[in-house]
Amino acid sequence: MNVLYLAHRIPYPPNKGDKLRSFHQIKELSAHHRIWCAAFADDPGDLVYAGVLHRWCQDVCVLPLNRTRAALRGLVNLLRGGTTTEGFYRDPGMSAQLRRWCAEIRFDVLVVFSSGVANYAKDLPVPVKVLDFCDLDSRKWWSYAQRKRFPQGLLYRLEARRLARRELEWIEAFDHAALITETEKADLTPDAARKTTVVGNGVLMPGESDTAVPASRIVGFVGAMDYAPNVDAVTWFVEQVWPRVQTAHPAARFQIVGRNPTARVRRLAKVQGVDVVGEVTHVIEAMKSWQVSVAPMHMGRGIQNKVLEAMAAARPVVLTPLAAAGLSSSDVEHLVLAETPEEFATEVNRLLADVNTCQHLGAASRHVVAREHSWAREVAKLEGLFAPGEPRLRLAANYEIATP
Predict the structure, then answer these.
(1) Are the beta carbons of 366 and 313 closer than 8 angstroms?
(2) Are the C-beta atoms of residues 241 and 341 closer than 8 Å to each other?
(3) How far apart are CA 265 and CA 222, in angstroms?
(4) Would you state the torsion angle of the CA atoms of residues 27, 86, 17, 96, taken in this order, to the nearest 10 degrees?
(5) Which CATH architecture has domain 2-202+376-383?
(6) Which runs of E-coded beta strand occur in 10-107?
(7) Strand pairing partners for 134?
(8) Which fold has domain 208-373?
(9) In terms of DSSP H, where are the helices of 187-240?
(10) What pLDDT is attached to residue 150?
(11) Domain-by-domain residue ranges, the chain?
(12) Contact 112/158 with Cβ under 8 angstroms?
């Protein structure tokens, strides 16, 4: 099949959650289909990677996205009664490129990755259209709104309400929709949920030689450090949990690994025992020295790739219920859940004092990931939505938008 793949962010390099998902979808699909990829680059440094995608794609179009201008477009669109999300990614150049390709090539399937670029699909003459939401962005905005004061919190709530309504409209307009977890799907109306398939994430498995858990007293966190939920998570951990860990284990260290650490994150390096490592070439190399991995998330949605990566590396993981929400019961079985600062510190201290328990939990988690989180298996679910002739489900016109 000829597949037109449209993403809100260039799928390479696969160094953050959404890019991991879109990259592996393209890579797996290219084994059986011809792919044309269009995407935006919100980081100017990513433009140089457009050529790399030709390894898996017939043609590639990557347009630069100025985040300041895009944010202004989004705000104007919100004030005019629309959503920030749609205004942010509105670009006549992208519309023109997609129309040119469709005039030259008979596409069998359109795959749209993320709600931000869903609107581009409406006028494209492609017989089967699939929208991969990944997460429901409206729920992310609700999550952000709970932790922001006026007026920012009010604007976030407004975006969440309007985007929730648009998400249901997009599910109706596309032939098929995909979400990353059953938890995300449960937030939809019953009619919308029946039209939606869960397509999870996979993970690359490190070799056995990279999975020995050392008695290092090093606790680690990995993630894009300009992403608000990650910034919030490490700040909470350093301010609320780390003093309790240092009291029990004065020699312990906390490593924050990830690209583009914000000023707020960099300031955490002033705290005793905290290292802001920044970007690394290979996450697994950084994880080799960790005794414990943490995911103290209080914002965000979906599967936490950082948790799957730590599990694949056989590291014990202490995480909040929110970070575990997108995982299956078998995934969570060998993880350590904690919510309050006191609970979190207690569990981290327990693991730092017992490397044998760390090794046992890590090995069990690695086994689960190897069994249940294959990119090939998950992308096959997406590919299963490509068959033409499936009847569209007409959603009720008077649906209600549930708000958390």
Answers:
(1) yes
(2) yes
(3) 13
(4) 30
(5) 3-Layer(aba) Sandwich (3.40)
(6) 34-41, 59-64
(7) 179
(8) Rossmann fold (3.40.50)
(9) 190-194, 228-236
(10) 86
(11) 2-202+376-383, 208-373
(12) no
Give the CA distances from residue 9 to residues 60, 307, 362, 370, in Å, rounded to whole numbers and listed in that order.
13, 22, 33, 28
* 237's tokens: 């951990």
CATH topology identical between 2-202+376-383 and 208-373: yes
pLDDT in tens, 66-86: 999 999 999 999 999 999 999
Q: How far apart are the first and last CA of the chain?
A: 40
CA-to-CA separations, 264 to 42, 65, 100, 267, in angstroms, rounded: 21, 25, 44, 5
Helices (H), 241-354: 242-248, 263-266, 283-287, 305-312, 321-324, 329-332, 341-352
- Check: CB of residue 100 under 8 Å from CB of residue 59: no
Give dist(CA 122, CA 379) in Å, integer. 24
In this structure, the strands spanning 274-278 and 292-295 are unpaired
Contact at 8 Å (CB) between 355 and 382? no
pTM exceeds cut of 0.90 = no
Per-residue pLDDT tens over the stretch 87-140: 999 999 999 999 999 999 999 999 999 999 999 999 899 999 999 999 999 998
DSSP 240: I
